[in-house]
Design brief:
The complex is a heterodimer of chains A (384) and B (508). With 384 residues, chain A is mostly helical. Helices cover 69% and strands 2% of the residues of chain A. Among the domains of chain A are: 72 residues; 114 residues, Serine Threonine Protein Phosphatase 5, Tetratricopeptide repeat; 64 residues, no CATH class. The chains are: A mainly alpha (384), B alpha+beta (508).
Chain lengths: 384, 508
């Protein structure tokens, strides 16, 4: 076995974010230069195609997911390129026929729900060039927003095109909630977080308090980015309480994910203040996840650690404790226990030292504790 | 001298062959004249089993009593996509037992031909099969009442059959695209005919049946547009599936093929051209290209280093795969003499060599026996410098059997009294991509300091046994032993039980 594989081929299983640069980074650029994009996409695909045949079913499943992601991200990276660089939509499918707004939305919905975003974009752009009105702009903004939110990735030029359409639609139809949703989503995708928050506040006023669960979910994400924990938690709760029954489970799941992802960045806990903030965040995430099994499952290990991390465990010598207890008529027992105990988070941080090996195995060694800390380090795929 | 037969136990089709002492090989036909037996088993209500073409025909009428594609689940509990067990009349059938039915049918064909029962066989498996899949294949043979002398890699068998016809030497890339599995092997053939596998790759869920399913999906979509549903009943789906397979075969030689679909009580013409078909299988084509290039890279070779590109397996007839190989490797692939039978022929030739009664003047007699190799690496779990657990490979994949490897590890904590040892099969460092096949605990009998050495030795014996021994690195004291005798799905007892039940089952 003499082939040399580059580290980025295997270690990066998710782009760090949705920006163009982060997508390129997913394909090893840098250290490679941009002209190596096609080669690197093939290398990464080949590597994970190989991994998808490993003897471990967990690994096979993970590799299959990464392969799908490689396809999606490579399409997204190329979508922003000129046609002759492979960025053009396929032209073999005949143009869809639409004369009315209803027909346009029907066609767009079909394409988007089938993940055929290139076709949806082509039709929406055609609508914009034919109609030149707010309805068409709204449709285009929605397609781009779906691409960003559902596929999770998009090129900056495309996001800018969608944002321009969304802002035009908002100006023309300020009472239409969907236009605000698109605007806020695309502002967030453009890293214009303060503007996104302002748009959401404006949406609340312009729509007469009809801001949707999705808008509050976007606000949650914005607040997480701005590191405003209290407001993030409030927005998450509002998103859940405003969710229509048809989307309630999805909103709960998404709100849980946003809060849990943030809570994961607070690990490892290094002080009682950290513990309080972490426990609050996980408490709200657990509330959001209620009734949605996969979301409840996602938060479970974090919640267990929130409960256990503050518990104090005796780390001293049990022989010494017994000796002191006997000679002091057991008066020293509570004092000694208190003095020679540590909270679980501290035991975890100090690792398996000589004195606290037993305590470490009790509170910090269980698989779930290791797992949630590994997630923070980017070592586990399943929980990301 | 007792005859030894070669069997290609395929995902979709199986073949049995015999090589006589002069080195002449015969592929054995059944009473119906067919030399290729579909790997399909039908369970009759009277307890009998039908194997082959007749079983496949029954799939249209009673699909719930028919098992196919079970090789994809070899070594696992089930072969069904939904991971449910395959149950007929309350009995669960494992992939090994189903494979045993096919083996028994093949053995009966050979018995009819030579007038004596078949006892000893050589069976082929895909090169990327791990030890548990190989052990399961061996179990299948034992259940069918056969003595499995060797489990041989399919590409090796194909290369032997091809090599004896063409005397190819140098580096060969064998591209084996069968009905249900895909396999790429890069090997080196020495002038004396000995073969060394340099790298293997493959996809256990890629083959002709996947292409049939893609055509079937297109058929269904076309039918739906005309208000027809061709998948209302399982039998209707099976009928459409057979037509999809026929279309695929026609498109290997014709530009356009047509079939008449039946649904909702009326016929519907369906036409597919080669360009449309190639568009349907584009992702699969890319996957095979990726695997081919990756395997070549793993062997540390450039396309120009490959002397012969040999195509094997029925699905290699699809022109798109030939064009892809020509494009990637820069040379025209050659085909084995008979795409569907050469693997069994190669296995039969190896069987003849086992028999030792070959005419010393034959080419086959002069050819060295192929060396068994470990299909995958063997290693143990250990913490790396970043304190992340990973697989440390001790015996590399493709090492000749018997293989031995050892490495020294160190304790990571002060006062450690024991170490947990996990034996893994696989070639990756990431534990998610290797299979843990055994674990145990080694005790020092005292607390040892951090960094204390532990020596781990792994042996892979000629009998297929994997043995791990761990020793105290300072005193040499024995710490722990792990043995993996039969890593397959069935234990020895279960296999013996199944064989006893099977002996009483009528297979035809």
């Amino acid at each position: 076995m003499v082939a040399t594989r580059e580290k980025w081929e295997t270690t990066s299983t998710l782009p760090r974010g949705a920006s163009y640069e982060q997508m390129l980074e997913f394909f090893g650029i840098p250290p490679s230069t941009a002209d190596a994009l096609d080669d690197n996409i093939s290398k990464k695909r080949r590597r994970w195609n190989h991994m998808s045949n490993s003897g471990n079913s967990v690994g096979r499943q993970k590799a299959a997911e990464v392969l799908k992601l490689i396809q999606r991200v490579s399409q997204a990276v190329k979508r922003g390129m000129a046609d002759d660089q492979g960025g053009g939509a396929e032209t073999e499918i005949p143009a869809s026929v639409f004369e009315t707004l209803e027909e346009l939305w029907r066609i767009l919905s079909e394409y988007v729900f089938a993940d055929e975003y290139d076709e949806a974009l082509r039709v929406a752009r055609e609508a914009v060039s034919r109609w030149r009105n707010a309805d068409a702009a709204s449709a285009l903004a929605w397609v781009v927003t779906s691409l960003v939110n559902d596929a999770g990735i998009a090129h900056p030029r495309l996001v800018a095109e969608g944002l321009e359409a969304a802002q035009f639609a908002v100006r023309m139809q300020p009472g239409e909630v969907r236009n605000w949703e698109s605007t806020a989503s695309l502002l967030l995708a453009s890293s214009m977080v303060q503007d996104a928050v302002a748009a959401i506040d404006q949406a609340e006023r312009a729509t007469g308090g009809r801001a949707t669960a999705l808008l509050y979910l976007l606000r949650t994400r914005a607040m997480v980015t701005l590191k405003r924990a209290d407001e993030a938690m409030v927005a998450a709760v509002r998103a859940v309480t405003r969710a229509e029954p048809a989307v309630a489970a999805a909103i709960r799941s998404e709100a849980t994910d946003v809060l849990v992802s943030w809570a994961a960045t607070m690990l490892p806990i290094r002080s009682d203040t950290d513990l309080t903030r972490y426990s609050e965040m996980i408490g709200v995430a657990a509330w959001c996840s209620h009734g949605v099994p996969e979301a409840e499952d996602r938060v479970r290990a974090y919640r267990m650690w929130a409960i256990n991390a503050g518990k104090r465990v005796f780390v001293g010598s049990t022989r010494m404790r017994s000796f002191l207890a006997v000679i002091t008529g057991f008066i020293s027992l509570p004092i000694h226990n208190r003095a020679r105990s540590q909270p679980a988070w501290q035991i975890f941080n100090e690792g398996q030292g000589k004195e606290i090996t037993e305590a470490f195995f009790i509170v910090a060694a269980p698989a779930y504790v290791q797992k949630i800390h590994n997630v923070r380090l980017g070592l586990s795929f399943q929980d990301q | 001298m007792e005859r030894i037969f070669g069997i290609d136990l395929g995902t979709t089709n199986s073949v049995i062959a015999y090589t006589d002492s002069t080195g002449t090989t015969e592929v054995i036909a059944g009473q119906d004249g067919n030399r290729i037996v579909p790997s399909v088993v039908y369970f009759g209500k009277d307890g009998t089993q039908l194997v082959g073409t007749s079983a496949r025909q029954r799939a249209i009428i009673e699909p719930e009593r028919v098992a196919m594609l079970f090789k994809r689940g070899m070594g696992e509990k089930t072969f069904l996509e939904n991971e449910q067990p395959f149950v007929v009349d309350g009995k669960t059938w494992s992939p090994e037992e189903l494979s045993a039915s096919v083996l028994k049918k093949l053995a009966l064909m050979a018995q009819d031909r030579f007038g004596e029962p078949v006892r000893k066989v050589v069976i082929t498996v895909p090169a990327y099969f791990g030890d548990n899949e190989r052990a399961a294949t061996k179990s299948a043979g034992e259940i069918a009442g056969l003595e499995v002398l060797h489990i041989v890699n399919e590409p090796t068998a194909a290369a032997i059959a091809h090599g004896l016809d063409n005397a190819s030497t140098g580096r060969i890339l064998v591209f084996d695209l069968g009905g249900g599995t895909f396999d790429v092997t890069v090997m080196e053939v020495a002038p004396d005919g000995s073969m060394k596998v340099l790298a293997t790759g493959g996809d256990r869920r890629l083959g002709g049946m996947d292409f049939d399913n893609l055509i079937l999906d297109k058929m269904s979509a076309t039918a739906r547009q005309s208000g027809l549903d061709i998948e209302t009943e399982p039998w209707a789906r099976q009928d459409a599936y057979d037509k999809a397979e026929a279309l695929k075969k026609e498109l290997s030689t014709l530009d356009t093929a047509a079939a008449s679909l039946t649904g909702s009580g009326r016929p519907l013409p369906f036409e597919l051209n080669r360009a449309e078909f190639e568009k349907l299988i584009k992702d699969k084509l890319t996957a095979t290209e990726d695997t081919t290039v990756y395997t070549l890279e793993t062997a540390g070779l450039q396309p120009s280093d490959i002397g012969t590109v040999l195509m094997v397996g029925g699905s290699s007839r699809i022109p798109a795969f030939q064009q892809m190989l020509e494009h990637v490797l820069g040379k025209q692939p050659v085909f084995s003499r008979n795409l569907d039978e050469d693997v069994a022929r190669g296995a039969a030739m190896l069987g003849a060599k086992e028999g030792q009664d070959l005419d010393p003047r034959s080419v086959l007699a002069r050819m060295p026996k192929p060396v068994d190799v470990c299909s995958h690496g063997l290693g143990v779990s250990a913490l790396n410098d970043d304190r992340v657990m990973q697989n440390v490979i001790i015996i590399e994949a493709q090492s000749p059997v018997p293989a031995h490897g050892e490495d020294t590890f160190n304790t990571v904590e002060e006062g450690q009294t024991h170490v947990e040892i996990k034996l893994n099969e696989g070639d990756e460092e990431d534990l998610e991509f290797v299979k843990q096949i055994a674990k145990g605990t080694g005790r020092f009998g005292r607390a040892v300091p951090k960094g204390y050495p532990i020596v781990v030795k792994i042996d892979y014996t000629r009998a297929g046994m994997i043995e791990l021994n761990a020793y105290d690195g300072e005193t040499g004291a024995f710490l722990c032993k792990l043995e993996v005798e039969r890593p397959g799905n069935l234990s020895s007892g279960q296999a013996a039980n199944a064989a006893e039940i099977f002996r009483k089952t009528k297979v035809s």
